[in-house]
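Class, study these two lines:
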Amino acid sequence: MRGRVCVRLRCFCVGDSPEPVPAEIEGQVLVSDADKDVVVQLSVARGAAARRGEPAGAPTTDCRNLLEALPAAVYATDADGRISFFNRAAAEMAGRRPRLDTDQWCVSWRLFWPDGKPMPHEDCPMAVALREQRPVRGQEIIIQRPDGTRVFALPYPTPLHDADGTLIGAVNLLVDITERKEI
């Protein structure tokens, strides 16, 4: 029997007040693989900080620390696809540290389709999710690191919208399936 991994994250920015401040949900992502072995829920909410004019999607220190501690590769982009956050696991999977606000759509150096053909970054699942404003599921990719090693992965890119429905960015969870491929 295979185990099930379930992670639930809720990141709230409540401002300076010690009292709880109602937070508006900016984005909620529920992703799982086909076998329901990996289930992750990411909820990003903003409260007083948003009312103070802080930028949408700016992770709080607690939220950033929580995402950094995850063993799963997670990264986020702005609405134009520029990388705005990545955790340590994402950098390890990619074999490089992405350049924030410069790299677009992917933390990876090079991408390939499952058949081994090169995948232009503008065709990667994250770019499709942002362009079409819909989650992309079930699209296997191959990540090539700068040292030439490859990782098979299942990405789960999901667009994030503000309360008015405006696209503000996307979050992506990358699940390493290399071991499954080597069996």
In short: The mean pLDDT is 74. The chain is about 20% helix and 35% strand.
